[in-house]
Amino acid sequence: MRTALESVAAYGSVSYGLLAPERLRAVLLGDVASPAERVQIHQALTETPPYRLATLARELAISSADLDRRVEQLFGHRLEETTPWTRPSA
Fold it and tell me: Where along the chain do its domains lie?
């Protein structure tokens, strides 16, 4: 069974090349992301259900609020605005 980190990294590897779990961890914990990694990480987060992102935060030993703040630093908007799972339908 995959860890949440591995699952989220796999989502980020679908369209734009391999996103290594170790690199995803590093960026989510504060490393600078390259432009390519930003695209991969955005895809990873938008395609991961919220419950799995909560598990990811626990695996990274950070709170969901910390993960949300990091997403806002990376993309300029909060996690709930990034994931289609939490956006209201039109």
Answer: 4-82
